[in-house]
Each structure stands twice: as structure tokens, then as C-alpha cells.
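Q: My labmate handed me this sequence with no annotations at all. I'd like to see what the chain might look like in three dimensions before we decide whether it's worth expressing. Could you predict it?
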Amino acid sequence: MANGVFATVNNIILIGMMGAGKSAVGRLLAEKLQRRFCDVDLCIEKAAGMSIADIFANEGEYSFRKREREALTYILEVKEQVIATGGGAVMDEDNVFKMRKGGQVVYLSAPVELLAKRVNAEGATARPLLANGNAEEAIKSLLAQRANIYSRAAHVVVEQTAEYKQTQVADKVLAALETA
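A: Here is what I predict for the chain of 180 residues:
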């Protein structure tokens, strides 16, 4: 599968809410396609020398979004990789333009309940935008702001349910990209 239609696909860029599985599915896709995997948030943390939560706490969301924009610009200069973005990366129109120009954008969509379950299992308090309240309500609010943006930014949408394993989601992404 590393050849064929994917030889002509530049980057595969995963977008969606926190808990959608962008990092886990991205790693699986990169392995299947024998490509480099890049998690934008991890790149930001490495460059900053601190966690995303610490960036939010010490510098604020504006500074984080600036770092995110710079990291994404740099990351998109490399070709033929699988990229997992942060959930809010699409809120910057310039990011969306660069992502759509730099590869196939895939929106990993999932119901609020599933997103909240996954985020709570990971520890919702480690997520700056969820640290002050009920994860499900916060995700519902964020998704209300972002769902249409995710859909417009994406070349392909992959719907998930609680029954899907991450390997199945990765296979669904590959199938969707083959028909896109």
C-alpha cells in the first residue's frame, strides 16, 4: 500500500478534536505507508522545552497559537509524511490554507461522548482548554465552534464510532484517500 495512489499524495494531515485519535491513527498510517510521522504538538513542546499546558499557563493561548503556526509552516516543508495537528490548528485560516496546499487533509470525526471518554481516560486536566470544567461540556462547546471549519478544511472526512479500533480507522482513512 506504500505505492500506488499514495505515491502521488504529498502529506496526509489529520485534523479533528482532541481525543479523535490523530496521533495514534497517524502513527499507524505512517507505518503502513512507510512514511515519517510528525505530531505538531510534540514538535512545539520540543522546541519550547515545555509542555503545551505549560505554554498555555506561562504564555497564554495566543503565544501557543503563534508557535503552532510557525511549527506547522516548518513541518509542511517536508514532503510525504503523516502529520497530526492540534485540535485548534484549523481556527487559523492561514494554517488551513497551508495544510490544504501541503497535502490531503483528513478530518477524524467522532461523537462528543467518545471524544470525552478518550480525553478523560488520558487525563483531561492535562489539556489546557479542558482544565477548568466538565470535559464533555467543554468538548461539546469547542466542537460547536469547530465542526464546520473541520469539514470545510478537509478533503476527506472519516467518521468514527466507539466500535472502531484505531487500526480500523487508519484503514478507513486509506480507503477514503484512495477514492478522494
